[in-house]
Amino acid sequence: MKNLQEATERICELKGSLLALDAVLPAVIQSLSRATRSRLMAAVDAHAEAARTVLLHSDISDVVLATFERDVACNRALIEKSTRPEPAGLPATVDALLQTTTCITTFSAGRVLTSASGFFYRHGDRLFLVSNRHVFADAGSAHHPDRIEIGVHTDPQDLTRYAVVSLPLHQAGLPLWREAADGAGAVDIAAMEIPAGSLPAGAALQAFEASHLDARDEQVSIGDALTIAGFPLGFHDTVYHLAVARSASIASAYGVRFQGQGCFLTDARTHRGSSGSPVVRRRLNDGASAPSWQLVGVHSTRMDMRTRDQTQDESLGLNCAWYADVLPALTAAG
């Protein structure tokens, strides 16, 4: 009876030891480099074959042989799984529009104020962040941030790699952004130059430039389909750090200043956080292998009627988009 009890206790001890090895082995394998894991696989195969030869010529039970083969197979599968190439984020075919757009978070004395959208615009060798003027400052709502944070991808192939860049909004008490204006007054577009040293090493981003403002002999008219890419209510793909897009259409006479201001209307469902989003149109006949984007405006705010009855009348669902053709002059040297 004593021998049976000792044997049972010994079996239980062996089970505990095996469980401990099952916990340690994956951790050890994961700590090895990919090249070392590949060499380990070859060594396991060689040692397993040698052990198999010894076992087949020994007086042991079939249970032992079966257990040996099962555990060898399990260990091989564990090593093989760890040596497979890891997914490299999204494919490089992700639409460039989503990589032109970034989420903007505004701060005052370290306190988060608002979330908005913006996009990159390049004038020569200078890079700018474009958004609405009211994102950077808005006296009407007492919005006076002192800095912003934007996101930038750091690997063009693996979009899970991402960095947050902090940018001050003032220097020596003066704003670092540029505001647009025309004969009718202020335009709700602002651009701030991003110093090259502010971006992380390997920053991977796309930027609009003056050529994207050209319709390339295509007629832009009321009713044309548009896309507004941004971060409504801060919502976005948090794994790959990509904006989302809403479908829209031109809802007022394009090329005509709506109510005398430098904007036109779009028909789209938008939310807070979309301010500063690029408003774009697909160019279909420019000879390119794939349709390209024309930057037509910068989304600003929802439009509505002050006389609308909040109970009986639905929202108009209209938005103000400021014409983007002010960007070359706004970002010119000076």
From TrEMBL:
GO terms for molecular function: peptidase activity. InterPro entries: Peptidase_S1_PA. The keyword Hydrolase applies. GO terms for biological process: proteolysis. It comes from the Bacteria. Keywords: Hydrolase, Protease. It comes from Ideonella oryzae. This is Serine protease.
